[in-house]
Design brief:
Length: 348
């Protein structure tokens, strides 16, 4: 389902997050895409207290501002209009050091459509001096993992924090080269823009402002965790002291992360109704869809309901799921059959 029936703008396709949230709520839930679209159109980015505070801090402390996120019009995890809105707001605030780190799509959009989005972005930046500089690009396969593949996340972290990647003067040309080599947007290896001396035009440094403009939560968590929350010594990933901002709340447990659009507190979801009637419930999925049957199905609630049991079956460790299309279906089947016999839940 899509469009107005699931709380999206007219003509916009739905997705698994939207579907699970509407199903769990049992009614139309208005989605972040439409909410943020309206904020951009109404100029609210220029007055939003979380954004203005971040921009004011950067100016006062002479820090860089980094905008990171998926650059496309897919509307599933982000929308390029929101990026433009942030650039406009930063320009109005006279932020001098504004940089963009682009995650390439190719999954919610055509596999090779990213060049068009990046070219349009570069044209916009050129025609609007002071609106920012494109500093790096990397495929969402690395930047937006959700299956604890920290070796993937490391590539995105390193290009933004250390400037580790293919050094180029022209990012669109590098993307064209990737296409010629058979690499589509989703899998583009890290590209870093350098100056004439071969140094990155910008990397994320301690104390900088970072704004992640993805509004969907599940694929924004891991890169945010690596940048701000937790060290992963085995991958040489260390969190940085940052003024970090996200469009929506990726995780209620995150510390020192500001949220632009606080989530609506959905009441009377099916999980809450079951709890109030002393019924037991089981939520089961493999890693890839675990957030959907828990967090999204519960209306954006992290905490389990009373009488709720959650079971996560690990997703297979393969590069892409066409290599194992059944994924973890057998493991899910075995686990839920056992649970039905032993636990006798009222709802699955």
């Amino acid at each position: 389902a899509g469009g107005l029936l699931v709380g999206l703008p007219k003509g916009v396709a739905g997705n698994s997050e939207v579907g699970h949230m509407n199903l769990g709520a049992g009614r139309v839930v208005y989605q972040e895409l439409g909410r943020i679209h309206k904020a951009v159109q109404d100029g609210e980015f220029k007055t939003n207290p979380v954004l203005t505070s971040a921009f004011d801090y950067a100016k006062r402390e002479n820090k860089q501002v980094h905008l990171i996120g998926l650059v496309s019009d897919g509307g599933v995890h982000s929308h390029i209009k929101h990026l433009y809105g942030l650039c406009d707001a930063a320009k109005e605030k006279q932020v001098e050091k504004l940089f963009i780190h682009a995650f390439m799509d190719g999954r919610d959009t055509d596999p090779n459509s990213g060049l068009g989005f990046i070219t349009n972005l570069e044209t916009y930046l050129h025609n609007s001096p002071g609106s920012g500089t494109l500093a790096s690009a990397v495929g969402r396969y690395y930047a937006m993992d959700r299956d604890n593949r920290w070796e993937r996340v490391k590539l995105a972290y390193d290009v933004m924090v250390h400037g580790t990647g293919k050094p180029v003067l022209d990012i669109p040309q590098a993307i064209q080269t990737s296409y010629a080599e058979g690499v589509s947007d989703e899998f583009i290896q890290p590209i870093v823009k350098v100056n004439t001396e071969g140094k990155p035009v910008a990397v994320i440094e301690p104390g900088d402002v970072v704004i992640c403009f993805n509004f969907r939560t599940d694929r924004g968590r891991e890169i945010t965790t690596a940048l701000t929350q937790k060290a992963f010594p085995e991958y040489q990933l260390q969190p940085l002291p940052l003024h970090y901002v996200t469009m929506t709340s990726y995780d209620d447990t995150f510390k020192n992360v500001e949220v632009v659009f606080k989530k609506d507190d959905l009441k009377k979801t099916i999980g809450e109704v079951l709890e109030n009637n002393n019924k037991t419930q089981v939520r089961i999925a493999e890693t890839e869809k675990y957030p959907h049957v828990t967090f999204f199905f519960s209306g954006g609630r992290e905490k389990e309901f009373k009488g709720e049991k959650r079971i996560m079956i690990p997703s297979p460790k393969v590069a892409t799921y066409d290599l194992q299309p059944e994924m973890s279906a057998n493991g899910i089947c075995d686990a839920i059959c056992k649970e039905l016999v032993e636990g006798k839940p009222d709802f699955v």
